[in-house]
Protein backbone atom coordinates (compact mmCIF):
# COMPACT_ATOMS: atom_id res chain seq x y z
CA UNK A 1 0.00 0.00 0.00
CA UNK A 2 1.49 3.39 -0.94
CA UNK A 3 2.54 5.35 2.10
CA UNK A 4 1.97 2.60 4.66
CA UNK A 5 3.53 3.59 7.99
CA UNK A 6 5.93 1.33 9.87
CA UNK A 7 6.64 2.10 13.53
CA UNK A 8 10.27 1.02 13.30
CA UNK A 9 10.13 -1.05 16.48
CA UNK A 10 12.13 -3.94 15.02
CA UNK A 11 15.88 -3.67 15.76
CA UNK A 12 17.93 -3.30 12.60
CA UNK A 13 21.08 -5.35 13.11
CA UNK A 14 23.16 -7.79 11.09
CA UNK A 15 21.49 -10.34 8.83
CA UNK A 16 18.07 -9.44 10.24
CA UNK A 17 18.57 -5.87 9.09
CA UNK A 18 19.51 -6.93 5.54
CA UNK A 19 16.56 -9.31 5.29
CA UNK A 20 14.14 -6.71 6.62
CA UNK A 21 15.39 -4.00 4.28
CA UNK A 22 14.79 -6.18 1.25
CA UNK A 23 11.53 -7.76 2.46
CA UNK A 24 8.93 -5.36 1.07
CA UNK A 25 8.43 -2.44 -1.29
CA UNK A 26 10.53 0.70 -1.10
CA UNK A 27 10.77 2.30 2.35
CA UNK A 28 10.92 6.06 2.85
CA UNK A 29 12.56 7.13 6.11
CA UNK A 30 11.65 10.43 7.74
CA UNK A 31 8.73 12.54 8.91
CA UNK A 32 6.49 14.33 6.44
CA UNK A 33 6.78 17.69 8.19
CA UNK A 34 10.29 17.81 6.69
CA UNK A 35 10.02 19.40 3.23
CA UNK A 36 12.96 17.27 2.09
CA UNK A 37 11.20 14.04 3.04
CA UNK A 38 7.82 15.26 1.86
CA UNK A 39 8.95 16.18 -1.64
CA UNK A 40 10.13 12.59 -2.08
CA UNK A 41 6.83 11.23 -0.73
CA UNK A 42 4.75 13.48 -2.99
CA UNK A 43 6.88 12.44 -5.96
CA UNK A 44 6.44 8.74 -5.16
CA UNK A 45 2.67 9.20 -5.04
CA UNK A 46 2.73 11.36 -8.18
CA UNK A 47 4.58 8.59 -10.03
CA UNK A 48 2.39 5.83 -8.61
CA UNK A 49 5.29 4.04 -6.91
CA UNK A 50 4.30 2.08 -3.78
CA UNK A 51 6.32 2.61 -0.62
CA UNK A 52 6.28 1.99 3.08
CA UNK A 53 6.71 5.03 5.31
CA UNK A 54 9.08 4.78 8.28
CA UNK A 55 7.83 7.73 10.29
CA UNK A 56 11.04 8.31 12.23
CA UNK A 57 12.23 11.54 13.81
CA UNK A 58 15.82 12.79 13.55
CA UNK A 59 15.46 13.67 17.21
CA UNK A 60 13.85 10.69 18.93
CA UNK A 61 14.85 8.05 16.36
CA UNK A 62 18.38 9.15 15.49
CA UNK A 63 19.98 5.75 16.16
CA UNK A 64 17.37 3.95 14.08
CA UNK A 65 18.00 6.33 11.21
CA UNK A 66 21.76 5.79 11.53
CA UNK A 67 21.18 2.06 11.11
CA UNK A 68 19.95 2.82 7.59
CA UNK A 69 21.83 6.02 6.73
CA UNK A 70 25.23 6.49 8.44
CA UNK A 71 24.75 10.26 8.20
CA UNK A 72 21.73 10.03 10.46
CA UNK A 73 19.80 12.29 8.09
CA UNK A 74 16.48 12.08 6.29
CA UNK A 75 15.18 11.35 3.79
CA UNK A 76 16.61 7.95 3.02
CA UNK A 77 14.95 5.61 0.56
CA UNK A 78 15.43 1.86 0.87
CA UNK A 79 14.92 0.26 -2.55
CA UNK A 80 13.17 -3.06 -2.96
CA UNK A 81 16.54 -4.82 -3.32
CA UNK A 82 17.65 -3.47 0.08
CA UNK A 83 20.05 -0.82 -1.24
CA UNK A 84 19.75 2.65 0.27
CA UNK A 85 19.66 6.08 -1.37
CA UNK A 86 20.26 9.23 0.69
CA UNK A 87 19.69 12.94 -0.02
CA UNK A 88 16.39 14.02 -1.56
CA UNK A 89 17.92 15.27 -4.82
CA UNK A 90 19.74 11.99 -5.42
CA UNK A 91 16.58 10.04 -4.58
CA UNK A 92 14.44 12.06 -6.97
CA UNK A 93 16.98 11.69 -9.76
CA UNK A 94 16.92 7.92 -9.24
CA UNK A 95 13.11 7.88 -9.35
CA UNK A 96 13.11 9.78 -12.64
CA UNK A 97 15.61 7.26 -14.01
CA UNK A 98 13.40 4.44 -12.78
CA UNK A 99 10.23 5.62 -14.55
CA UNK A 100 11.94 6.90 -17.69
CA UNK A 101 11.88 10.27 -19.48
CA UNK A 102 8.23 10.08 -20.50
CA UNK A 103 7.08 10.01 -16.87
CA UNK A 104 9.96 11.82 -15.17
CA UNK A 105 9.09 14.90 -13.12
CA UNK A 106 12.12 16.84 -14.39
CA UNK A 107 12.91 17.57 -18.04
CA UNK A 108 15.66 15.22 -19.23
CA UNK A 109 17.95 17.87 -20.73
CA UNK A 110 18.32 21.32 -22.23
CA UNK A 111 17.18 24.75 -21.12
CA UNK A 112 13.99 23.40 -19.54
CA UNK A 113 16.01 21.18 -17.21
CA UNK A 114 18.47 23.96 -16.40
CA UNK A 115 15.66 26.38 -15.54
CA UNK A 116 13.88 23.79 -13.41
CA UNK A 117 17.04 22.97 -11.47
CA UNK A 118 17.65 26.68 -10.87
CA UNK A 119 14.19 27.11 -9.34
CA UNK A 120 14.65 23.99 -7.22
CA UNK A 121 18.06 25.21 -6.04
CA UNK A 122 16.54 28.51 -4.88
CA UNK A 123 13.77 26.70 -3.01
CA UNK A 124 16.16 24.21 -1.44
CA UNK A 125 18.50 27.02 -0.39
CA UNK A 126 15.59 28.82 1.26
CA UNK A 127 14.58 25.67 3.14
CA UNK A 128 18.12 24.94 4.30
CA UNK A 129 18.56 28.53 5.51
CA UNK A 130 15.28 28.42 7.41
CA UNK A 131 16.10 25.02 8.90
CA UNK A 132 19.48 26.23 10.13
CA UNK A 133 18.01 29.37 11.71
CA UNK A 134 15.21 27.40 13.38
CA UNK A 135 17.55 24.71 14.69
CA UNK A 136 19.91 27.33 16.11
CA UNK A 137 17.03 28.74 18.12
CA UNK A 138 15.53 25.42 19.22
CA UNK A 139 18.69 23.43 19.94
CA UNK A 140 21.04 26.02 21.44
CA UNK A 141 20.58 27.84 24.74
CA UNK A 142 19.95 31.55 24.15
CA UNK A 143 23.37 32.52 25.53
CA UNK A 144 25.10 30.31 22.92
CA UNK A 145 23.11 31.41 19.89
CA UNK A 146 25.08 33.36 17.30
CA UNK A 147 22.69 36.14 16.29
CA UNK A 148 24.69 37.43 13.28
CA UNK A 149 24.74 33.93 11.79
CA UNK A 150 20.98 33.53 12.33
CA UNK A 151 20.34 36.87 10.63
CA UNK A 152 22.62 35.94 7.73
CA UNK A 153 20.69 32.72 7.17
CA UNK A 154 17.39 34.59 7.37
CA UNK A 155 18.69 37.09 4.83
CA UNK A 156 19.57 34.27 2.43
CA UNK A 157 16.14 32.75 2.98
CA UNK A 158 14.29 35.97 2.21
CA UNK A 159 16.42 36.72 -0.85
CA UNK A 160 15.71 33.27 -2.31
CA UNK A 161 11.98 33.52 -1.60
CA UNK A 162 11.84 37.01 -3.14
CA UNK A 163 13.43 35.69 -6.33
CA UNK A 164 11.02 32.75 -6.46
CA UNK A 165 8.10 35.14 -5.95
CA UNK A 166 9.39 37.37 -8.76
CA UNK A 167 9.62 34.41 -11.12
CA UNK A 168 6.22 33.07 -10.08
CA UNK A 169 4.65 36.48 -10.65
CA UNK A 170 6.28 36.77 -14.08
CA UNK A 171 4.71 33.44 -15.06
CA UNK A 172 1.26 34.50 -13.90
CA UNK A 173 1.08 31.89 -11.16
CA UNK A 174 -0.92 34.17 -8.89
CA UNK A 175 -3.87 33.41 -11.18
CA UNK A 176 -3.34 29.88 -12.47
CA UNK A 177 -0.90 27.24 -13.63
CA UNK A 178 2.32 25.66 -12.45
CA UNK A 179 6.06 26.22 -12.87
CA UNK A 180 6.26 22.82 -14.55
CA UNK A 181 3.98 21.67 -17.31
CA UNK A 182 2.78 18.53 -19.01
CA UNK A 183 4.71 19.58 -22.09
CA UNK A 184 8.06 19.78 -20.29
CA UNK A 185 8.23 16.01 -19.72
CA UNK A 186 5.78 13.15 -20.11
CA UNK A 187 3.30 14.96 -17.91
CA UNK A 188 -0.43 14.31 -18.06
CA UNK A 189 -1.75 11.93 -20.74
CA UNK A 190 -4.47 14.49 -21.46
CA UNK A 191 -1.94 17.27 -21.86
CA UNK A 192 -3.54 19.26 -19.02
CA UNK A 193 -1.13 21.25 -16.83
CA UNK A 194 0.02 19.23 -13.84
CA UNK A 195 2.56 19.98 -11.13
CA UNK A 196 6.04 18.74 -11.92
CA UNK A 197 9.11 18.50 -9.68
CA UNK A 198 9.61 22.26 -9.46
CA UNK A 199 6.05 22.65 -8.17
CA UNK A 200 6.38 19.70 -5.80
CA UNK A 201 9.56 21.09 -4.27
CA UNK A 202 8.46 24.72 -4.13
CA UNK A 203 5.13 23.81 -2.56
CA UNK A 204 6.57 21.48 0.09
CA UNK A 205 9.13 24.12 1.01
CA UNK A 206 6.67 27.03 0.96
CA UNK A 207 4.35 25.15 3.34
CA UNK A 208 7.30 24.46 5.67
CA UNK A 209 8.40 28.11 5.58
CA UNK A 210 4.87 29.31 6.29
CA UNK A 211 4.23 26.89 9.15
CA UNK A 212 7.62 27.46 10.77
CA UNK A 213 6.98 31.22 10.77
CA UNK A 214 9.99 31.84 8.53
CA UNK A 215 8.19 34.07 6.00
CA UNK A 216 5.37 36.58 5.78
CA UNK A 217 3.01 35.09 3.19
CA UNK A 218 1.44 38.50 2.57
CA UNK A 219 4.60 39.28 0.57
CA UNK A 220 4.33 36.13 -1.57
CA UNK A 221 0.88 36.04 -3.22
CA UNK A 222 2.00 34.15 -6.33
CA UNK A 223 3.80 31.44 -4.38
CA UNK A 224 0.88 31.20 -1.96
CA UNK A 225 -1.54 30.69 -4.86
CA UNK A 226 0.68 28.03 -6.43
CA UNK A 227 1.01 26.21 -3.11
CA UNK A 228 -2.75 26.32 -2.53
CA UNK A 229 -3.40 24.69 -5.92
CA UNK A 230 -0.87 21.98 -5.25
CA UNK A 231 -1.89 21.33 -1.64
CA UNK A 232 -5.45 20.70 -2.84
CA UNK A 233 -4.25 17.71 -4.86
CA UNK A 234 -4.38 14.14 -3.54
CA UNK A 235 -0.62 13.46 -3.63
CA UNK A 236 -0.04 16.51 -1.43
CA UNK A 237 -2.93 16.03 1.00
CA UNK A 238 -1.85 12.42 1.62
CA UNK A 239 1.58 13.57 2.81
CA UNK A 240 0.71 16.69 4.79
CA UNK A 241 1.70 16.79 8.46
CA UNK A 242 1.73 19.97 10.58
CA UNK A 243 5.25 21.20 11.17
CA UNK A 244 6.87 21.00 14.59
CA UNK A 245 10.47 21.41 15.69
CA UNK A 246 12.15 18.09 16.45
CA UNK A 247 13.94 17.72 19.76
CA UNK A 248 17.13 15.79 20.38
CA UNK A 249 16.46 13.05 22.92
Explain what the structure shows.
There is one protein chain. It contains nine helices and five strands; from the N terminus they run E-H-E-H-E-H-E-E-H-H-H-H-H-H. By secondary structure, it is an alpha/beta fold. A five-stranded mixed sheet has the order 1-3-2-4-5, covered by helices on one side. Helix 7 packs across helix 8. The protein starts with a strand and ends in a 12-residue tail after the last helix. The relative contact order is 0.14.
Number of E-type strands? 5
| Succession of helices and strands | EHEHEHEEHHHHHH
Largest sheet, spatial ordering of strands:
1-3-2-4-5
Low-confidence stretches: 1-12, 182-187
What's the total helix number?
Answer: 9
**Structural class label:** alpha/beta
* General shape: globular
C-alpha termini separation = 31 Å
Share in β-strands: 5-15%
Mean pLDDT: 86
Throw out a few tags for this protein:
249 residues, alpha/beta, 5-stranded mixed sheet, 9 helices, disordered N terminus
Walk me through the topology.
Elements: E1 4-6, H1 14-21, E2 26-29, H2 35-47, E3 51-54, H3 62-68, E4 76-78, E5 84-86, H4 88-99, H5 110-139, H6 147-170, H7 197-211, H8 221-231, H9 234-237
Parallel strand pairs: 1-3, 2-3
Antiparallel strand pairs: 2-4, 4-5
Helix pairs in contact: 2-4, 2-7, 5-6, 5-7, 6-8, 7-8
What's the short version?
The chain is α/β, with parallel strands linked by helices and 249 residues long. Helix content is 50%, strand content 7%.
Amino acid sequence: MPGRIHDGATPLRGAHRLAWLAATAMKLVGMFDSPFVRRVAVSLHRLGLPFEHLDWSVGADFQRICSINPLGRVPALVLDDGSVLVDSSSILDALDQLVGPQRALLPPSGIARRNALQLIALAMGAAESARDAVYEQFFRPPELQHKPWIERRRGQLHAAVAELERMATARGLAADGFFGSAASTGGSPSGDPVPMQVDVTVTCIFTFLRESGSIDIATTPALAALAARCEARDEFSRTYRPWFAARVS
